[in-house]
Design brief:
Oligomer: single chain
Distance between the termini: 45 Å
CATH class: Alpha Beta
Shape: globular
Number of helices: 4
CATH superfamily: Gcn5-related N-acetyltransferase (GNAT)
Number of strands: 5
Strand order of the largest sheet: 1-2-3-4-5
Number of domains: 1
CATH architecture: 3-Layer(aba) Sandwich
Mean pLDDT: 96
CATH topology: Aminopeptidase
Strand content: 25-35%
Length: about 140
């Protein structure tokens, strides 16, 4: 019923409508520009499809850090509201974990907003542990 696949870089703009829902305060033009810069820096995006309709996305980064080694970082994970709570997030994350293993990753890390309680519950169910705080300073 659902299919999950890597979105080719040349088709990456297909995710813009979902990104606009995820970040409604950011203009589409800004999202498009940032997305292009991210893809240039190695960002990849996974799509969840129901037939040919894109209903979910997750960006991914491959990183190596001293304290954890090579790992995958899911980013901008979003499932359309009408498809949430149906196990699609689990399917997506299982796909991502298998993809990460195929790229020799030994861990996965991610960021979750402090006010996103549903997201925090989801990530804990996925086996993630809260190990740090993520700080930001605008320049």
């Amino acid at each position: 019923m659902y299919s999950i696949k890597l979105i080719p870089k040349q088709d990456i703009e297909v995710v813009l409508p979902l990104l606009k829902e995820l970040y409604p305060k950011i203009t589409r033009i800004t999202l498009k520009k940032r997305l292009a810069e991210m893809v240039f820096s190695g960002y990849e995006c996974i799509g969840v499809y129901k037939n040919s309709e894109l209903i979910g996305i997750s960006g991914i980064w491959f990183l190596t850090k001293l304290y954890v080694g090579k790992h995958i970082e899911p980013d901008n994970v979003y499932i359309l509201p009408e498809y949430q709570g149906k196990g699609i997030g689990n399917l997506l994350m299982n796909w991502i974990f298998e993809y990460a293993k195929s790229k020799n990753c030994i861990a996965s890390e991610l960021n979750c907003y402090t006010g996103n309680e549903e997201g925090q519950k989801f990530w804990e169910k996925q086996g993630y542990d809260l190990i740090a705080y993520h700080y930001q300073k605008k320049l």
